[in-house]
Design brief:
five-stranded antiparallel sheet, rod-shaped, Beta-Lactamase, alpha+beta, about 40% helix
Length: about 625
C-alpha cells in the first residue's frame, strides 16, 4: 500500500505533466492559429471541425462560424463533385491526397487553392492544409494563354520554333515546326530532322549548324524534300545560348515555311522576264523616268538610238534639253512628271552623227498615293520616213522640172524649125542669084548660113531625143531595138557639160534581136545606168557599152565604167528605194530601184559587180521577141 509521501509525489508528477502538456498544446495551438497557410479538420461528412485564422480568412467567414458547416459551401459548384470524390478518397486510402479547387468567396478575381488532407489516427477526422495558389494559377493561365497565342501566331505566320542541345543532341520542337517538317511528336530527333533536308542543301545546312555550335548566329534558306516527293522552302534564324565561359548551351531557332513566298518570287521573276521580253521586243525605244527625271528602266532599242545618253541613272536633260535648263518647260519628260500627256516631234542633232528625227510620246505614271509621278516615254525613230518625205518632195520638184523642160523643148523646137528654114531659103537665094556671090561683102554669108542650118538641125535632134525620152509610156509592149534606144541616150548625154571629158565606147551587135518591151521604160533604164556611170567618174574616164546575143532566149546589155566603185555595204542596199550616197538635193535614190523594177517587169535580170577603185559593171539580160 502506497505511503502518503508516494501518493503526494505521484500527484505532483501528474500536475507537472499536465503543465508540460498544456505548454506543448499552447505552443502548437500558436503554430496552428498563426501558420501562413489554412488548417482545417473535417469529419467523414465534410463538416468543418476546426480551422485556423488563415483558413477562416481564405474562406471569408468568421472563425467561430465555421465549425459544423460543410466545406462544399465555400467552393464553386463546378468543383463540388470533385471535392466529394477527394474527401471519400482521403478516408478510404488513409494516405495524403491532393486536390485543386476554386473558392466561391466573392473576390474581385477568382481564388484558387490547393488542399492536402490526411486521416488522423482515429480514422474519424482528417487534417487538411489549404494553400492559396491563385498567383501560381494565374501564372499558369497566363503561360497557357501565351503558349496558345504563340502556337496561333506560329500557325498564322507558318513559323515554328525549336531548340537543340549540342551535347545531348536533344531536339525540342513546336507543333507548327512539326507540321512544317511533316513529323509526329514522337519522331522528333536530330537524325529525323536532318533526313528531310534536301540532299543538294544538306552540306550547306550542316556547315551552318556547326558554325552555330561554335557560337555563331546565322540565317539560312534551304529546301525540304519529303518521302512523297513534295518540296518546301524554309527560312531559319538561329541564335546560340552561351554561358559566361563562352560555352554554347543550346541553339534556339525559328523556321518559317516560305514556299509560297518562293513561288511568288518565281512567278514574279517569270512575269518580270515576260514583261521585259515584251518590253524589249517593241521596235520603239521605251524609257521609264523616275520622279527626278532620271532613267529607271529602258528597253534594248533605247540605247541603240542614244548610245551615250540612255543608261540607268542618266538624266532626261541629255536628250531633250542638253544646253539650257530654261528649256525644262518644253521637255516632254518634265511635262509628263507634272501630269501632262505629250506628243511631239524632235530633231536630235549630234556632232558625230547625222540628225535623228524622232516622234516622242510621254505619259505620266501615277504612284499609289498620287503624290509623285514617273514618266513613260516612247521614242520612235522616223528618220527614214522623214528622208523619204524629203526625197518625195525632191521627186515632185524633179517631176515638175521634167514637165517644164518637155514643154520648153516643144516651144523651142518650133523657132528652131523656122530658123533652119530661113537659113536654107537664104542659101537657095545665093545659089539662084550668082550676082550675090560676086559681092565681096557677102563672102562669108553662105558659110555662116550653113553653120546656122547645121547647128539648128543639131539642136532639133537633141530636143527630139529629149522629147522621145520624156514621152509618156502607154504601157503597151512592142518590138524594141535596144541598140537604137542606147544610141539615143548616148547622144542625149553627149552634150552634157560634165560628160565632155568621159569617153564612151559602144560595142553594139549589128544584128541584135529585137525584144518585147516598153521603149520609154527601157530608155529610163539605160538613162539611169549611164547617168550613174558618168557620176561615178571624177575627171577623165571611160564607159563601155556592149550588146550581144546570149543564147536563143536572151540578149545581154553590159554597161561598164572606170569610176570609184562601191563597197559591199552599199551593194547590199543599192536596189532599195530612196537609198542614195549622194548629197541632199543631188539625188532621190529612186533611179536604181525603178531600174530594177522595170527590168523585172520585162522578165529580165540585172546583175551588179563592183570593186572600190576599179569601177562598176551592170549586166542586163532581156528576153528576145519570139515570133
Amino acid at each position: 500500500m502506497a505511503t502518503e509521501a508516494e501518493h503526494k509525489f505521484a500527484i505532483d508528477e501528474m500536475k507537472r505533466a499536465l503543465e508540460e502538456m498544456k505548454g506543448e498544446r499552447d505552443k502548437y495551438a500558436f503554430l496552428f492559429d498563426d501558420a501562413p497557410v489554412g488548417y482545417f479538420t473535417f469529419n467523414r461528412d465534410g463538416n468543418i471541425c476546426s480551422a485556423n485564422v488563415i483558413g477562416a480568412e481564405l474562406l471569408g467567414v468568421d472563425r467561430a462560424d465555421l465549425v459544423g458547416r460543410k466545406f462544399e459551401q465555400f467552393i464553386v459548384d463546378e468543383d463540388s463533385l470533385k471535392f466529394s470524390s477527394f474527401r471519400r478518397k482521403v478516408f478510404s486510402s488513409r494516405q495524403k491526397e491532393t486536390c485543386r479547387l476554386e473558392l466561391a468567396k466573392a473576390y474581385p478575381q477568382p481564388v484558387f487553392v490547393r488542399i492536402e488532407a490526411l486521416v488522423n489516427s482515429t480514422g474519424e477526422e482528417c487534417q487538411a492544409v489549404l494553400l492559396d495558389i491563385t498567383p501560381k494559377k494565374q501564372a499558369e493561365q497566363a503561360l497557357s494563354e501565351s503558349e496558345y497565342n504563340l502556337a496561333k501566331a506560329q500557325a498564322m505566320t507558318h513559323v515554328g520554333s525549336w531548340s537543340y542541345d549540342p551535347v545531348t543532341t536533344e531536339v525540342q520542337a513546336s507543333a507548327e515546326l512539326l507540321r512544317i517538317m511533316h513529323l509526329a511528336p514522337e519522331q522528333v530527333s536530330h537524325e529525323v530532322f536532318a533526313s528531310v533536308v534536301h540532299p543538294n542543301d544538306y552540306d550547306m545546312v550542316m556547315e551552318h549548324l556547326r558554325n552555330g555550335i561554335k557560337g555563331k548566329s546565322y540565317e539560312i534558306e534551304h529546301r525540304l524534300l519529303f518521302d512523297d516527293g513534295t518540296l518546301r522552302w524554309v527560312y531559319t534564324i538561329v541564335e546560340p545560348s552561351v554561358n559566361n565561359v563562352g560555352q554554347v548551351l543550346k541553339l534556339y531557332g525559328t523556321t518559317q515555311d516560305i514556299t509560297l513566298r518562293k513561288q511568288a518570287e518565281v512567278d514574279l521573276r517569270n512575269k518580270t522576264n515576260e514583261l521585259q521580253t515584251i518590253f524589249d521586243s517593241i521596235s520603239d525605244g521605251i524609257v521609264v523616268y523616275d520622279y527626278n527625271g532620271s532613267v529607271q528602266h529602258h528597253n534594248l532599242i533605247s540605247p541603240q538610238l542614244f548610245p551615250e545618253k540612255i543608261f540607268p541613272g542618266s538624266s532626261c536633260k541629255a536628250i531633250f534639253h542638253p544646253e539650257a535648263d530654261s528649256d525644262l518647260k518644253e521637255c516632254p519628260v518634265e511635262r509628263a512628271l507634272n501630269g501632262e500627256r505629250v506628243d511631239i516631234s524632235l530633231v536630235v542633232n549630234d556632232v558625230q552623227a547625222a540628225p535623228l528625227y524622232v516622234d516622242v510620246t510621254a505619259t505620266p505614271i501615277k504612284d499609289a498615293l498620287g503624290e509623285k509621278n514617273r514618266a513613260l516615254v516612247f521614242i520612235r525613230d522616223v528618220s527614214e520616213k522623214r528622208h523619204q518625205e524629203m526625197h518625195l518632195i525632191q521627186v515632185e520638184k524633179m517631176s515638175s522640172v521634167g514637165v517644164l523642160a518637155t514643154g520648153m523643148a516643144h516651144e523651142i523646137n518650133n523657132p528652131l524649125t523656122s530658123i533652119a528654114g530661113c537659113a536654107e531659103a537664104l542659101l537657095r537665094r545665093f545659089h539662084d542669084a550668082p550676082a550675090l556671090e560676086e559681092d565681096s561683102r557677102l563672102d562669108v554669108f553662105p558659110r555662116y548660113l550653113e553653120v546656122i542650118t547645121r547647128e539648128s538641125y543639131r539642136c532639133k535632134g537633141i530636143i527630139e531625143h529629149l522629147l522621145s525620152f520624156g514621152s509618156t509610156s502607154d504601157g503597151s509592149a512592142r518590138k524594141v531595138d535596144v541598140n537604137l534606144a542606147l544610141e539615143e541616150i548616148v547622144e542625149l548625154l553627149r552634150y552634157q557639160p560634165n560628160c565632155q571629158q568621159i569617153r564612151v565606147a559602144c560595142h553594139l551587135l549589128p544584128v541584135l534581136p529585137r525584144i518585147k518591151g516598153d521603149p520609154s521604160g527601157l530608155r529610163q533604164v539605160f538613162m539611169n545606168l549611164l547617168v550613174n556611170a558618168h557620176q561615178s567618174i571624177e575627171g577623165a574616164g571611160g564607159i563601155e557599152i556592149t550588146t550581144d546575143k546570149l543564147d536563143s532566149d536572151f540578149i545581154s546589155i553590159i554597161i561598164r565604167d572606170t569610176g570609184c566603185g562601191m563597197e559591199q555595204r552599199i551593194i547590199d542596199r543599192i536596189w532599195e528605194p530612196f537609198f542614195t550616197t549622194k548629197e541632199v538635193g543631188q539625188g532621190v535614190g529612186l533611179g536604181l530601184a525603178l531600174t530594177y523594177n522595170i527590168v523585172k517587169e520585162h522578165g529580165g535580170e540585172i546583175v551588179l559587180e563592183s570593186q572600190v577603185g576599179k569601177g562598176t559593171e551592170f549586166k542586163i539580160l532581156l528576153p528576145i521577141w519570139q515570133e
